Amino acid sequence: MAVYKRTYKAYAGELTPQWSRMLVIPRYAWANLFQQRMLVILYVISFFYPLGAALAIYFNHNTAFLAQYVPVPKDGFFAVNNTFFFVFTTVQSSLGFLLASFVGPGLMSPDLTHNALPLFFARPLSRGQYIVGKMLVIGGLLSTFTWIPGLMLFALQASLAGGEWLWNNGWIAGAMSLSFLIWITVISLLAMALSAWVRWKIIAGALMLVVMFLGAGVNQMIREVARSEIGGYLDIATSMGRIFTELFDIGGENPMSLEEAVAAVVLCTGILLWLILKKVRACEVVRG
Amino acid sequence: MNPPVIELDQLSVRLAKREILRGLTGTLKARTIGLLGPNGAGKSTLIQTLLGFHKPASGTARILGYDVRQQAMDVRSLVGYMPENDTFVADMSAVQFVRYMAELSGLPPEAALERAHEALFYVGLGEARYRKLGNYSLGMKQLAKLAQAIVHGPKLVILDEPTNGLDPPARLRMLKLIEEMRDSGTMHIVLCSHLLKDVEQTCEEVLILKGGRVVQISNLEEERRLNQRFLELETHGIRNGFVDAATAMGCECADLGNGRLKLILGEGIEVRHIYQLAAERELQLRRLSQRRDSLEDIFLRAMSEN
Description:
The structure holds two protein chains of two kinds. Chain A contains 13 helices and no strands.
């Protein structure tokens, strides 16, 4: 199909593997996203805490340099333990949520606004692959400043503290990875569901914040008025926070049991997935 | 031997508790296939079922030998689809969008970019390929949809109402492109349209649907060949045994009255033989016309018979 000849010629070259085609979706989405200055700024800010934490871990183990300027405690400035990584997870999760609120609204609405889905599904791409591809847009982005730097910090601490620390605290790496995985999955699904159902990006972005904070407010209200913890099912942030504290073995009073928190998150994930599947179809069937 | 383009075997599809396609059976083999039928006949549902968007309630359908249900991904690898309605991503430029679609079909990024440029030039959007699709006119959007349907070099292109909403020059351009694609010999085309002229101009075989059933499968090429055997004559004067002589030559004749005759030419008989016979019998031929059994006739006959 040479341009100058303007005659049609079939493509006879090599094809990419079938499994890799869903990765095309996040690649195009990222290329588009990083043209937005605001997103780039937010993204850069998201690396501040991991960088600071890396420096803190380094200096915590290299006190000789700092000792020239400030008095240094015998056991270092702070303990790098489950609490340290729990705080890291909480801070980065919050930043991740903020970024997802920014990215999420434009995730699926452009494909749905002008009915582009039939073109996707007329190709060798299943609904599942499409959804995973879209999830990877947020998942991939968030991974770069959540669990990946988290594991790098863990590796840095392990290399500086030695084998005994690694042996005693190895489980923290698992807890951190699992916490981020749960958080990223729920946030991605929430962003996708809102993007699929709400076409206006600003409203979809605002709704993400509303879903998170309104749930907490309603939970609090139910707790005060009815003295019941059933409102926890509406409060995703609290439910996930409860799972995080359990995974990181952080003590303290917990109004919600772990089982209730897990049930709330599973229920929420199921509803979000159902909402997404209702919209991600090659064609609408008109009933009646 | 190449498998048929479309094979339907008792294909039924139910949507929202209504039976939309009812036991469709037929085999279509031509390079360009027209899909005809009145509104609500099930044309779009059939296309969507062939693409795997709807699951058949019973029966099977095969495209180029692949079962649309069991081998949906294989089918989609072979097919390019141009839907009827507006389908695009408004924020993308045409070249970005067509490249995106090509990559989803399995082309490597560099090849996809090259093919996207080529496909857009081919459909006539070369100069406008960096403009956002949201700013395109209706005709340009149709062409962009065609470009994304052919960019990956499919074996079968399904065009659902490709001339919808186009002005006459744009419509002619679209039909010319379809003819060029057909003549390139590298792909089969299924053209779904309610415009009989478009189908007649581009297709070799038609499947006519009505009320979710197949009412006729017709090979237009064969029909056209057969039509050339039918003559209608308007004569003046005494016939001098013209009818008997024509019958003796091997033609079938029918007198329609008022000097009008209908002839079916026998094997090896050409129109010039009829002229010769008329000259020998000194019969004036005021008019001689070959029957033009247009697609419209076939369509209307199919509609009335069912």
